[in-house]
Amino acid sequence: MPKSTTAAGKTWLVRELWDLGAIQFGNWNLGRTQNSPVYVNLRLLVSNPAALQRVGRVIREESETRLTMLHPGMAPFSRCAGVPFGGLLIATAFSLVSRVPMIYLHPTKGGGNVIEGQYIPGQTVLIIDDLITGGTSVIETAQQLRDAGLFVKDAIVLVDRRQGARERLKRYGINLIPILDLEMILNWGMANGRIPDERLYQASIEYLRGRAGEERDAAS
After folding, report:
1. At CA 63, angle to CA 173 and CA 99, rounded to 5?
2. How many domains does the chain have?
3. How far is it, in rounded angstroms, from Cα 36 to Cα 80?
4. Contact assessment for residue 157 and residue 90, using Cβ atoms and an 8 Å cutoff
5. Backbone phi, then psi, for 100, in 5-degree steps?
6. pTM of the full structure
7. Which of 70, 82, 162, 217 is most buried, taking the most CB atoms under 10 A from its CB?
8. Digit-coded pLDDT (tens) for 123-172
9. Three-class SS of residue 26?
10. Of 150, 154, 4, whose CA–CA distance to 76 is shortest?
11. Which among 158, 166, 160 has a CA at the least distance from the CA of 215?
C-alpha cells in the first residue's frame, strides 16, 4: 500500500474527528486523564457507519504498509483484539475490512475475564484501541492474552496523547503504533480555524507537553 494512501487516510481522519465534534475543550476529570483541558471522544464514530468503516481501512493500510517494508515496522499477526470498551468498535471495523478474525476479553461475574472468539495458543494478536494515555488498558489486555498462550507484539491506536504510553508499553515488549497523536490533531485544528480561541490551543499543548515530561521523569 503506497505511503501516500496512508497519509491521505490520516488527514481524512483528523478532519473527520473535528467534523464529528470529537475534540472537546473544558476541564475534564476522566479516569486516568485528570483535569485535562482537552478530550477526544472517539466513541462518536459509532454514529457514523461510513466513517467507522473508513477507520478500519486506515488501520488496514497502516498495517499493510508496515508489514511490507524492507524492515517491517510490526510483526505478522493472525488475530486482532479490541481493548474494552473503546477499542471494540475500532477492532470490529478493522476485522470486517481486513478479514482478520477478532477476539476480545469479556468480564465474568467472578471478576475475571474470558476470551471470546476462536484462537489457538501460539498465534500472534494485534491489539487495537481507540485512544491511549498511560497504556494501562493495553498492558492489561496483553497480559491476559499472553496468559492464554497468545503472543502480543504490537498495539495500534487511533490517537496517542503522547503522555508516556510508548515508553511504558516498550518495557512490556509491546510496540505502539499510533495513527494520530493529539498534538498533531490540535495543530491541524488551529491551522484550519477549528479552535475558536488560541488560548484553548496553548493551554492544551502546554498540558500535553507537561504531562509527557512528567511521565518521562517518572520512567527514568
Report:
1. 110
2. 1
3. 30
4. no
5. -90, 125
6. 0.91
7. 82
8. 999 999 999 999 999 999 999 999 999 999 999 999 999 989 999 999 99
9. strand
10. 154
11. 166
